């Protein structure tokens, strides 16, 4: 189930989630200048008695996929752990004086995630779910799916602008990811996906007919042991 924002102010949004067992969570989201999304989570108990003892068991959802994906470990909240390579477990900080538990997290823009999905553990073994399903919270500023064709065109344009340098596989992949991040930043800033498609592809996915001449420059041939144009997403990159 998704929970729409109860109030929205520019690039900030706030929503409330009833977790069950007398627990309620407020979620404040802020889209940062680089496109990352910062989330501030507060959990309170309807019954008082100090800050709840809770832990978030979570992952991210990409457009068109129900599979949990994990952000880079260097972006995780403090004291978080990767659980069986399938989820992140992040404990909340308990503030008994204020009577709530708090957690701050940042979702990197480069992931292209559209939602946070999670279940909550209270105490040692009380797992809280959205009925029989996981909770799903849409991320502020989430953008539509960027096709591989559009991403490749953006990466190609970026490579051309740089003077068509010869790139090893790692550098080519980094350039591709940077191009995708720039597309996401434009979409978060209000650009229309169709306009980006027209600019980079010469056509919009909403119509099969080109609305202006498409780019016809052929992709450069790769040099030996080098990749001179960024690879498609999903291709093996250097690490």
From TrEMBL:
Residues 205-218 have a biased composition (Low complexity). Residues 204-239 are annotated as: Disordered. Residues 51-139 form the Alpha-glucan water dikinase-like N-terminal Ig-like domain. Coiled coil: none annotated. Residues 149-201 form the DUF7067 domain. The keyword Endoplasmic reticulum does not apply. Keywords: Carbohydrate metabolism, Metal-binding. Pfam families: DUF7067, Ig_N_CWD1. GO terms for molecular function: metal ion binding. This is Uncharacterized protein. It comes from Prasinoderma coloniale.
